[in-house]
Amino acid sequence: MDTSLFTNANFQLINVVVLLAGLASFTWLLLSIPLRVYRRASSRFAIANLFLIFAMLFSNWQKPDEAGSLWLLADIGVLFALVYYKLAICQLFHRSIHPRLVTGVVAIAGIALVASLFGASNHTFLNALICLLAAVITLFTARIKYISLHLEFSAWMARVLAIPDLLLAGILYVLVSGLLFAADNTSVAPLQPAGSNTVAWLYIAFCLLLNCSGIAATITRLVLRMKHLADRDQLTGLPNRKVAFRQLESQWQEYKITNKTFSVFILDLDAFKRINTMYGHEQGDVAITFVGDLLNRAVRVCDFAARLGGQEFLIVLPGNELRNARHVASKLCALFAKSRWRAHTPPLTVSIGCAEARQADSLEQLITLAEKALRKAKLQGRNQVVCASVAEEETYSLVSSSSY
């Protein structure tokens, strides 16, 4: 065996990897514990770096004239680093985590380690198997990240953000190829950083990519979270006024292109000022939250519900003519009339103004028609649905208004 391969430069590069992984692990722990930034995901990123440190230390302790058991442990450390990296990505993007993944990896690693300890003659094959498994896990992680990001960004942006994971898998496949197709049969294989300056540099790139990808995923998730909060009403969790009018504009443009009509409701909670006066503003917030929850459960997946502000809400029903919309609105009124928002108090009632896209020449006119219909419903006694029409038969009264 050529012991000249084991130079001080190689060990210094390994120490650089240990230092980088140590700093990264400390940073992730800071994010997890004091700063509480995605605590579970940050903790898993920290654990991934700790496994990488162990892998480098085992590789550093391996002597060239001994069997490669410590190198196998180093490879297993890299494998578990990538397993915890995948678990962190799944946690960040709310993807399901299969417990069998960890169980299977532990089983394979245990079998490989036992085979090594009990005299397996071909350590190179075991190392290649562990490394190949790590590459496959990394590819699955890249796929999870791409699918999650594609839901929020364009396809090309999702691909760009998944590139670090693909590079990680590429490094591992290069190492597998070096192991399986090495010209000699020495135990100094390209997978071991101590055996090659090139591979030591690959491990430095591996450490940097692992953490850069984790940081990019965390920042992306934070941006998406802030965007979500900026677009949501804090009390009900429904989209806010800005998003509501953006959705209306999009729906109107689709209607102008495809001539597929849609209807709009403006829903107002009756006697809201009286609720605040009698029960206090805190209970008024409870009433608004109740309305938001009920609307969120009542509308279809294809429909859109938002809070415009105060006690007013907007509902958009794609593909619904005014007659169908009135039927849906009347069912909503009935649902509110029989739902209890607070013990020992009368139920909430709502008034709804409806309008259909075909009744208007512009989006502004459509909204005005719905608002006028809502005012008419209020003037006629509340707890009723009024559609944008002067005909009396377009008024559908459910029950007499409840008084507080």
Automatic annotation (TrEMBL):
Gene Ontology biological-process entries: cell adhesion involved in single-species biofilm formation; negative regulation of bacterial-type flagellum-dependent cell motility
Single GO cellular component term: plasma membrane
SMART domains from the UniProt entry: GGDEF
Domain of life, source organism: Bacteria
UniProt xrefs under InterPro entries: Diguanylate_Cyclase (IPR050469), GGDEF_dom (IPR000160), Nucleotide_cyclase (IPR029787), Rev_trsase/Diguanyl_cyclase (IPR043128)
SUPFAM superfamilies: Nucleotide cyclase
Matching CDD domains: GGDEF
Single GO term (MF): diguanylate cyclase activity
Record keywords: Membrane, Transmembrane, Transmembrane helix
Listed EC numbers: 2.7.7.65
Protein name: diguanylate cyclase
Biological classification of the source: Bacteria, Pseudomonadati, Pseudomonadota, Gammaproteobacteria, Alteromonadales
